[in-house]
Amino acid sequence: MARSISEIQSFQPVARTLMGPGPSDIYPAVLQALSRPTVGHLDPLFIAMMDEVKQLLQYALQTDNPFTLAISAPGSAGMEACFVNLVEPGEKVIVCRNGVFGDRMRENVERCGATAVMVDDAWGAPVSPEKVEAALKAHPDASTLAFVHAETSTGACSDAQTLARLAREHGCLTIVDAVTSLGGVPLKVDEWQLDAVYSGSQKCLSCVPGLSPVTFSPRAVAKMQSRTHKVQSWFLDQSLVLGYWSGEGKRSYHHTAPVNSLYALHESLLRLYQEGLEHAWQRHQDMHQHLKAGLDELGITFVVDQPYRLPQLNAVTIPDGVDDAAVRQHLLTTYNLEIGAGLGDLAGKAWRIGLMGYGARHENVALCLKALENALR
What we know:
three-stranded antiparallel sheet; 13 helices; alpha/beta; 377 residues
């Protein structure tokens, strides 16, 4: 029963250990950054910090793309921004679907008035380059190839470099979901020649939810500039927001940016730079191996075959006879530990254990293994 409004007090959440599919545990320094004094979103001090955020994002994404920024909305808005700016009505887009988020790409394509040609793979499997190549050959009029690099619903990692090469060979741009991959596994935008890439702040960056890093290659920018239809979303029209993020001298006003959240993103990206990308990638892999060793002892197996497993998102099969919801509730109430349920085809069949950013550390792995052992016993 809802409280009367007179009974409502300041919200004080308990401290959880977040080991689900996101959000992840946030670095203490990032939380502290949120509490710094708010300045105006056109203040010269804030503009200077935005320039640093851009530089740090370019490092994290391994790109020199000038068109690199953080959208003032979560990763789903980053996804939509890529589609509404690059896909026009009547076009054909090849969409790879091996989990929930590939299907969301399809939804975006159709809402743009375009046709989605689906390339389907099993949940837990990576996107098949052979199937993609066949689809590209069968649809030479396709303008774009869209795929998820790190499928959050299954824990499978696809070969973004190979898929992007196939797209280029057939004259297609690429739209790439890197929401879970950024900061956790190698992601090399320029080397792999990816065209439009979007991510989220709340996964391996261990920042607060609500921001979406994006980057667009010169090829993608040229496509945006040659559009014959107005972008269907005013807020996500990147030709309008670019003057705010990249304008020389006076910045154009587009919207009131989430000032303190961008402080937090700046801090989390700075921590990633100070650790070094390669060290961060290796730390995620090391913690995955630590978790795997403990799960092996508990008889818990992985959904994804070893070569394609994401170290930061571990989808594991729920043992026979085990009550999915009861175990997750036990972990939450007894240990203040959150792990994720399965989605779609994996609902009730799998747990998703996140080892993302600040959450990818020994004490979290030890807690998770102890809690699961206790729950299963």
